[in-house]
Amino acid sequence: MRTTFLSLLFFFIMISCASESDEIDSSPITNYEWKLNSFITSVPIDLNQDGIASTDMVLEFECMRNEGYSFIPPSLVRYFNSGLNIEGEYIDNEFVVFNFSCIEEEELIPTFPMIGDYKMIASNKIKFKYHNVLVVGGTGPVEEEYTLVGDKLIKVTNSLYPTIYDAVNQRWIKTNITITREYTKAF
Fold it and tell me: Is the peptide bond before 141 cis (omega within 30 degrees of 0)?
């Protein structure tokens, strides 16, 4: 009986020690604010309608550089809005975009930041979930995964994005494209 008890005790001690040592270090991403450096699309888009299409949406709207994240130990994530104004409305359960513009700094209204939690799923991968985001026409919560490459945090997605402006109907047509967002540390 005593041998069984000692064996079980040893087993539980080993499990608890193993789980502590298996925790992935999050220090490469925490204690920094991460700012959007580039927003690359797989097709050129003239988002600001100046006659010049680009694959980097930050070149189309400089205010997108204000977008960012901060990761606060042990597991809190905070998202900062960019100041990019997207005008549109829901038509038949789909958000139809009419126009994009930057909000002037004096017109910016402090917004409630999206807050969630994060977890390192590998030494260079982070997954986080927003808790206070309403997903219209879908399910929540919103989950995202980023990869740490050197001093850059990168997210690659395939999604519907406004790519062509329909001047007759005065709205953007969405197509499925690849988007790569790159964030760098802002000290």
Answer: yes
- List the structure tokens of 6: 């000692």
Cα separation, 179 vs 157, in Å, equals 5
Q: Classify burial at 166, counting beta carbons within 10 Å of its beta carbon; exposed 0-12, middle 13-18, buried 19 or more.
A: exposed
Task: With beta carbons less than 8 A apart as the criterion, state whether 159 and 63 touch.
Answer: no
pLDDT, tens digit, 9 for 90 and up, residues 62-89? 888 888 888 888 777 777 776 888 888 8
What span, in angstroms and rounded, lies between the C-alpha atoms of 43 and 57? 11
E-strand spans in the chain? 33-45, 54-56, 68-72, 76-80, 84-91, 94-102, 114-122, 125-130, 143-149, 152-166, 171-186
Strands (E) across 103-151 are located at: 114-122, 125-130, 143-149
Q: Tell me the two tokens of residue 122.
A: 């590998």
Query: What is the structure's pLDDT at 132?
Result: 60
Provide φ and ψ at 27, rounded to 5°.
Answer: -60, -30
- Residues forming a β-bridge with 118: 128
Check if the beta carbon of residue 181 is closer than 8 Å to that of residue 42. Answer: no
Looking at per-residue confidence, does 47 or 109 come out higher?
47
| 23 CB-near residues (< 8 Å, 6+ apart) | none
CA distance 64 to 102: 8
Predicted confidence (pLDDT) per residue in 152-181, tens digit: 999 999 988 999 999 999 999 999 999 999
